[in-house]
From TrEMBL:
Residues annotated as catalytic: E25 (proton donor), K159 (nucleophile)
Phylogenetic classification of the source organism: Bacteria, Pseudomonadati, Pseudomonadota, Alphaproteobacteria, Rhodobacterales
Similarity comment text for this entry: Belongs to the pseudouridine-5'-phosphate glycosidase family.
Record protein name field: Pseudouridine-5'-phosphate glycosidase
Gene symbol of the encoding locus: psuG
Record: residues binding Mn(2+): D138
């Protein structure tokens, strides 16, 4: 029994020749950014991975297949699909068996990357423990996935809309290494610091790659979360973004489950008059470059 994987020619060639590959998710395209910036960003992310010496593999579910690398106009079609489903571990099999078009979250992209033999994945920011989770239990499936699937995920920390101290606690309980890249502070997506210490610190892609390889030697399940701070020029300092997040959260009353994160990202875009999107694009590109460097180092090990 084999998984229904369809590789783009570029990714198939990379696999055949042992070239470094970086997995990229698609929920950020369908649910994280408006059109046409979503499409422009997806293309730029792929370009940044290539320029940094690795091969991009954007992952999405279409026609009953897990697409590893989107060819031709597939990326453009996905970016304009209004009703793509947001797919996590719980929905991935149903989406494929029903033939729906599905955008993969961090959790689902990790599953697909592992099936495809890809070790490194770049995103914007992972999901986590939502504020008020002690009442509504809203905790992203991304955290459990990091605990069980051996992919190194590069993000700009967890999104600041979340309860970051609780997110860190859950990651620690689940045994997920959280590595600040070149920083002692946990980055908070739009800002470089959440005001919390990063549990681990590494300063080079080679160190992160060596830790990934060591986890494999130890037979540890689960991945690593690399928290890469947004470039200084594009950050929105926490004293500016926090009141906006509070306002967006107040507007989100009545929104639940999978809708929460996309709603908050859209609301924060409106309240910052687009500045949050500029920051989001910048941090994703930054993560793509670091992921490519890590993938190259893993290949060299
Ligand atoms: N990074 C971004 N924008 C996004 C996401 C990541 O810059 O929209 C997506 C990822 O797919 C992640 C999801 O898995 O947000 C988290 O959703 P939730 O909180 O519902 O688990």
């Amino acid at each position: 029994m084999t998984a229904p994987l369809t590789f783009s020619a570029e990714v198939a060639n990379a696999k055949a020749n042992g070239l470094p590959i970086v997995a990229l998710e698609s929920t950020i395209i369908t649910h994280g950014m408006p059109f046409p910036q979503n499409l422009e960003t997806a293309r730029l992310v792929e370009k940044n991975v290539r320029d940094a010496g690795a091969v991009p593999a954007t992952i999405a579910l279409m026609d009953g297949q897990i697409h590893i690398g989107l060819e031709g106009d597939a990326l453009e079609r996905l970016a304009q699909t209004k009703d793509a489903k947001k797919i996590s571990r719980a929905d991935i099999a149903a989406c494929l068996s029903m033939g729906w078009t599905g955008a993969t979250t961090v959790a689902a992209t990790m599953i697909c990357a592992q099936l495809a033999g890809i070790h490194v994945f770049a995103t914007g920011g992972i999901g986590g423990v939502h504020r008020g989770a002690e009442l509504d239990f809203d905790i992203s499936a991304d955290l459990q996935e990091l605990a069980q699937t051996a992919v190194t995920v590069v993000g700009a920390g967890a999104k600041a809309i979340l309860d970051l101290p609780k997110t860190l606690e859950v990651l620690e309980t689940l045994g997920v290494p959280v590595i600040g890249y070149g920083t002692d502070d946990l980055p908070a997506f739009w800002s470089r610091s959440a005001g919390l210490p990063a549990p681990l610190r590494m300063d080079t892609a080679a160190e992160i790659a060596a830790a990934h390889v060591m986890r494999g030697k130890l037979g540890l399940s689960g991945g690593q979360l690399v928290a890469n701070p947004i470039p200084v020029a594009d950050e929105i300092p926490s004293d500016q973004i926090n009141p906006i997040i509070e306002a967006a959260l107040a507007d989100a009353k009545g929104i639940s489950a999978k809708e929460v994160t996309p709603f908050l990202l859209r609301r924060i875009f409106d309240l910052t008059e687009g500045r949050s999107l500029t920051a989001n694009i910048s941090l994703v590109l930054n993560n793509a470059r670091l992921a490519a460097a890590i993938a190259r180092e893993i290949g060299a090990n």
